[in-house]
User: Fold this.
Amino acid sequence: MIQFFREHKILQWFVVGIVTLLLLVVLTATFFDWNWARGPIGRLIATKTGRSASIDGNLKVHLWSWSPTVDIEGLHIGNPPWATQPLMFGAQTISVTVSLGRLLRGQIVLPRVEILAPLVNLERDKTGRASWEFSSPAGTPSAKAGKPAQLPTVRLLVIRDGKLNVEDHVKKMTLNGSITAGKEAGTQKNSAFELRLAGTLNAKPLKVEFNGGPLVNLNPDTPYDFNVSIVASTMHVSGVVSITKPFDLSQFTAKLHLSGEDLADAYYLTGLALPNTPKYDIAGDVQRTDALFQINGLRGRIGASDIEGSLSVNTSRKRLVVKAKLTSKTLNFKDLAPSLGAQAAPVADMKTNTHSVAAIRKSKPDKNAKLLPDADLQLNRVRGMDADVTYHAESVTAPKLPMKEMSVHILLNEGDLKMAPLSVVFDQGAVVGTVEIDARQDNPETSIDMHVDHVELSQFKAAKAADAPLSGTLRGRLHVHGFGSSVHKFASTADGGLGVAIPHGQISDVLAELTGVNVLKGLGLLFSNTNTKTEIRCGVIDFEATKGNLQSKTLFVDTTNLLITGRGSIQLSSEDINFSLQGDPKHLRLVRLRAPISVTGTLANPAFGIKPEKLALQTGAAVAFGLLLTPVASVLAFIDPGLAEDENCEAMLDEEHDATVGPGAPPLPTEK
Assistant:
């Protein structure tokens, strides 16, 4: 071989040159001052992130190993110019070891990462610009803003004296705290991995805690589990999170438990526009795959109602997309009140099944309270997500209402909310229709179209009553349109109508006589055990709504013996009631008190009485007869000639049928 090189001088010099070059590379790599590269590396980071970046300390590289190590001192990366804090990330020292063998196979595996005194300041302003998004130097959110972070595989992560500060003006959240990750737990009470944050969420106290084992010997094929606890005012989230592939946050599973006073309070934590509810306690299994969050096995209680089903949230679009299928074995109808803006009814404690003293005191009725809630719809929340939700209650508990089941299909698209259909099924009959709220404008526009389908009146009676005061089939329609961000504001502007018809039925003689036909007889029936009934030939109630004033157009109940009529109005803006009911006999009555029953007061507190002015006139006439004639003649003032005629029931029902049910529908049955 030596003789060969002696005979080939050119090859000899070539080999000598290669060896010399390799030696120079080795010597350079060994003794090279890597601090010279701090500037170029800082400029490279700044170019990639659009932020200022610098390495203010020493930069050391240890190449001669199958696991090269890089030590960086004083790495700083700035926040965008609009941020309050100038620094986004800083660390006293960072030491990173790279697996050269995995790198040559196209995999980035870091056997060891140690960070001393890291400081992280994250901020998002009211417009949605986030400091952790690097799409532009200005920090403008990118199309991939919702994409989860996929970090390189780290076999050992050690963090000492870490600090984390979060300022999120969109979620109204402020957090400050510490993060540590050791090779083992410091004490029996401390975990190897700890994240401790405290601050506020929507001006209410917020506390976040993560606890896990040491981040040692991590394997991409072995999940990493840690416990989570989040307390935000009265809301508490707890559970176990399992990262499917450690440091790949695009996939994880969790078993979570959520409890609190009102589900709507979860908006600032989740971004979901959930309805207002009474006290809740629910749990579920969460699975994340990229931008899709799937919640299966959802179960628990909301107020006095049970709830179960499944739910998914897609974060890949500009607005969150929620799909859910929910059911209740038993729905307590009072639990729906908060979703309309009313105060939640007090419920038994979910652990002790007893009512708190505070809840009982809060439940006392307010004489000045309004029936129609005036809580405003949160427009920004409704516009911030889309939804497709179905809900069905297999049974319903409602005081004084014989409700059997309830179902609704909710569609929310770009601020347009539809409940179609909305169905309430009674023991006999149902109310079915649609509700649409267009929240795309500052003053929401609402349309309601509900149909009363063969509802039997006999099912509505007091709990202790043997029989109902009314019986018969009720059909009708409510169709109103208005504007306003609350139920009360909408009702105050409503235009439309309410019409119901009773083709035939029966009315209690007590109720009939007390409408003014024969007060003495009615009182006698009231205090006796007699419960006789009068046949109803037909009944029509028709109201017209104009700018929130509900005025009666037609109100009569035609029976075999008498005709009950009424008139009046309800001013929905003030909720004042002004009604009167009058009974006119069809046959001669010897004793009749011509004093119509009045209904006044408000929707929340109606008052019933007898109009005194007509009673005074009638009594005055009796006195005059008594003075001019004889005491016996005073009875003549109470004699009614019985001139009331039968209403044309068939014609009235046909007209009301077209108004309430719609032309072309099957005709209403009439009295035979």
Remarks:
- The chain has twelve helices and 35 strands.
